[in-house]
Amino acid sequence: MSHPHLQSRRLFLKLTATTSGLLFSGLAFTAENSAIVNRQNDEENAAQFPLLILHADNSITVINTRAEMGQGVSTSLTQLLFEDLDADWQQLKTVEQGWADDTRFGHQNTIGAISSLIAWNFHRQVGAKINLLLREAACKVWKLSLSEVKTNQGVVTNLKTGQYLTYGQLSKLVQTDLPKDKLALKQPASFSVIGQSKPRVDLLEKVNGTAMFGLDVNLPQLKVAVVARCPVFGGKVQSFDATEAAKIKGVQQIFAVPSGVAVVADNYWQAISARKLLQITWQEGDFATVSSNEVLAEFKQLLDAPGKVVKEQGDIALLDEKKERILTRDFEFPLVAHMTMEPMNCTVWLKAGSCEIWAPTQNSQDAQSSAAKVLSLAKEKVRVNMTYMGGGFGRRAQDDFIVEACYIAKKFAHPIKLVWSREDDIQHDFYRPLNAQRISVRLDNNKIYAWQHKVATYSTSPYHFSLRDRGTPSGDWVAYGGADSSLYQIENFQTQVHLQESPLTVGILRGISHGYTHFAIESVIDELAEQVAADAIDFRLAQITETRAIKVLQRLQTRLANVVLQDNESLGVAFGHEKAPSGPYQYYNAVAAIIERTAERYRVKRLIVSLDHGQVINPDGLLAQVQGSAVFAVSMMFGQAITLKNGRIEQSNFHDSPVARIAQSVEVDLLTSDSTEWPMGVGEKLQGTIQPAIANALYRATGQRITSLPVDFSSLGA
Fold it and tell me: What 3 state SS string does 22-34 have?
C-alpha cells in the first residue's frame, strides 16, 4: 500500500515550503557511515533514527544491528521494528549491516539466540517512539491533538478530514530525538507484520553475488595478510628465516606478531605462497606431548573423584539409599570445530588517530574494545563495521582474528585484510571442548528421587567470548551449563565439575554446552523410562510441572499418535529447555527422530519438532532455522571427530572433517505453539534436543545406547 500524493494542493505547498523541497533533494553519507554504504542518498531531507533512515520518497532504510550469518535476523528484526512503527512492508528500501555502537544501538552481540529476545523490546520500542514522533509532526501540520490522528501502513491519517501524510512527507518535519519513556506496544491481536512469512531481505543480493561478506571487502591500496601460527597450542616463535619467502613477487613485509609470523603481500595467493617458504623454529612447549585420547582418559578418571559443586539442592547422599532403582551412565564427547563456510577474516584501516574495521563478527562491541586496546585508541575512535558472514556458530563471537589483524595493521598506513585459510580455521579454532560426563540417578515409585551430574572438561574462562566474563568464574558456565538445572522435578539434585586450564583454545559452539549436557540428560531420561516400562513422553510429563513445557510435549505426543513406523524404522524422542532464574529468557522444545535402516546404513529420515520459543516472528524463517539445525546435528553426530595428537589438530579440511551432504538432508515436520511470550532464536537451541532424539532412535534400532560421538556405526553392526 503506497500513498504518493497528498489530497490538498495547499497542504502540499505548505509542506514543501516548510521542508525546503524535501521530495526532490538528494542525500549523501559521509565516509564515517561507510557501514551503511558507499552510496549517494538525500541526507539533508531524510530523518535519521537509531535503527532506520526515513527518506523523503517514503522509503525506509533499516540498519541491522545484529550479526547476519544466515539465520535471518535482518528480516525478523525488521519485522519487529515495522510492527510498532506501523509501516508498510513495501516501504522497505534496504537493510544495511550496522556497526558497533552501544550508545545508539544498545546490546549488539549475537550469541545465545538472544537477538529476537532483546529486539522484542528494543526494536519495538524504537518503532513505537518513531511512530509517536510522526503523529506529533502531523498534528503540528493539521493543528490537531494525538487523539485526532492515526497511523496505518506508513501514513498518518487526519480522522476529521480523511487527509493523510506519508511518513516520507513528514521526514523533514519530524523530531528525531526519541522519547525516553517506554511506550505501550501493540497487542498480539493487532499484529500485521509479526507472525507473517516475509521474504528474506538479503536473499536477492546473496543470490546475485552483490552481498558483502568479510572476504568481499576491497579498499584502495589494500594489502592481504596471512599468519603462520604454531601448530601446537601455546607454542611460540623461537626464530624464523624469511629469505626465500621474501623473494615472492608482491610480498611487502614479513614480521613477528604475538600469534606467529605475519606475511603481507599484494594479494592472497602471493601471501600464502610466501608463507609456505618460511623457515620457522617453534618453541612448542609442554603441550606438544598431549593427545585427545589421553585427555579423555584423564577426564573419565576425574569422574571417580569429588568435583567442585556448582549446584545442589536437597540431600544428594540419598543416592545411596536403598530405593527402587539406580542408574549410572558415562558419556564422552570429542572436540568439535565450527567449520564455517567463510574462514576468519578482518580488514583494518588504521588512520591518524582513528581506525575503521570491517569484520564478520558476532561480537562487534567487544571487538571494538579489544581493537582499541591493541591500537592504543579510545574506543570511540574505532569503528567496527559488521559484514555478512558465511556462518558463525559461535566461532565469530571470539575476537582473536580481529586482534591479530590489528597487530598487523599497526605497521601500515593503508588497509590490511587478514585472511585465514580453511586449514588455519580448522587447526586454530576455539573448539567445543572435549568432555566426560557421569549421571547417577535413583528412582522412587517411578519418580526421579535423586540426580547427580558430573562434568569433566577444559575451562572455558580464559577464552570466554565476553570480555566481561573472560578470566572469571562465570566464564566457565559455558563449559557445563545445562548440567546445573532441570525442569524435571528432582528434590535431591547436584552438579559437580572438574575444569582444567589448557593452552587449547576452547569456547562456544552452536548449542553451547547444552549440546552435550542435554544429550547425556535426555539419553538417561530415555533409559529411565524404559526401566519402568513407561512411554518416553509420558515419563517426561510425569516429572514436569512447567505449563509451557507440558504443552510442547503433549503437542508432539498428539502428532506421534498418527505416525505409523515401517519395519525398517525406529523412533526416539528428547526434550530440551532453558529457563533463566528470572526474566524472559526461556524456551521449550521436543523432538521425535525417525531413522531408517537401509541395506548400507542408518539414515535420519524425519524429524518431528514441537517447540515454544515464544512468539513466532517469521514462520518461514523459523522453519529454515530448524532445517539448518537438523543438518548441523547430523554433521556433528555422523561426521569425523576433531582429534588432538602431540598438541596439534590432526584434521585440516573437509576431506578429513566432512560435513553433511545433500543426501543426508532431513525432512522436518514443525509444530509451533500460539505463544505470545518473548521470542528466542531456534537454530542453536535445538542441538541439545535433536541429537539425543536421534541417539534414542538408534538405540531402538540396535539395542545399544549411544554414549559418545561421533556415532561409531561399526560398533552398531552397521
Answer: CCCCCCECCHHHC
What are residue 92's DSSP bridge partners? 60
For the chain (length 718 residues), average pLDDT per consecutive 10?
38 43 29 39 77 98 97 97 98 98 95 96 98 98 98 98 97 96 97 98 96 98 98 98 98 98 98 98 98 98 98 89 77 97 98 97 98 98 98 97 98 98 98 98 92 98 98 97 94 97 97 96 98 97 97 98 97 97 96 92 95 98 96 93 97 95 94 97 95 98 96 75
Per residue, the 3-state secondary structure of 579-636, as one string, reads: ECCCCCCEEEEEEEEEEEECCCCEEEEEEEEEEECCCCCCHHHHHHHHHHHHHHHHHH
Max Cα distance, the chain (Å): 90
| Strands laid side by side in the 382-386 sheet | 251-257, 260-265, 223-228, 416-419, 345-351, 354-359, 382-386
Q: Is the N-terminal amide bond of 710 cis, ω within 30° of 0? A: yes
Q: How many helices (H) and strands (E) does the chain have?
A: 16, 27
Nearest to 3 by CA among 140, 164, 132, 170: 164
DSSP string, 332-368: EE-BB----SSPPEEEEEEETTEEEEEE--S-HHHHH
Which amino acid makes up residue 23? Answer: L
At 672, give phi and psi (nearest 5°): -110, 160
CB within 8 A of 95, min separation 6: which ones? Answer: 61, 62, 63, 64, 74, 75, 78, 201, 202
Distance CA 423, CA 616 (A): 39
One-letter amino acid for residue 615 of the chain = Q
Q: 418 with 399: CB under 8 angstroms?
A: no
Q: Give first-to-last CA distance, the chain, whole Å.
A: 58
Q: Is 138 in contact with 170 (CB distance < 8 Å)?
A: yes
Q: Give the residue from 482, 470, 706 showing the smallest Cα distance to 572.
A: 706
What gap in Å lies between CA 349 and CA 412, rounded to an integer? 8
Distance in angstroms (rounded) separating the CA atoms of residues 564 and 670: 18
Q: Per-residue pLDDT tens for 333-377?
A: 999 999 999 999 999 999 999 999 999 999 999 999 999 999 999
Q: Starting at the edge strand that comes first in sequence, how are the strands of the sheet with 92-97 ordered? A: 47-48, 52-54, 60-64, 92-97
Domains and CATH numbers, the chain: 1-38 (no CATH), 41-208 (3.30.365.10), 214-285+344-419 (3.30.365.10), 293-334+431-716 (3.30.365.10)
Per the CB < 8 A criterion, the answer to whether 417 and 345 are in contact is yes
- Do 29 and 43 contact (CB within 8 A), yes or no? yes
How far apart, in whole angstroms, are the C-alpha atoms of residue 44 and residue 100? 24
State the residue for C-alpha cell 568479510.
Answer: 214
In angstroms, the CA 186 to CA 552 distance is 26
Q: How many CB atoms lie within 10 A of CB 281?
A: 10
| Cα–Cα distance, 184 to 130 (Å, whole number) | 13
Q: What Rg do the C-alpha atoms of the chain give, in angstroms? A: 28
C-alpha cell belonging to residue 108: 549488539
How far does Cα 660 stand from its chain's mean position? Answer: 20
DSSP structure class, residue 324: S
φ, ψ (nearest 5 deg) of residue 553: -70, -40
Three cell numbers at 644? 588432538
Backbone angles phi, psi at 439, to 5 degrees: -115, 125
Integer Cα distance of 265 and 271 in angstroms: 5
Bridge-based pairing of strands 325-333 and 435-444 is antiparallel
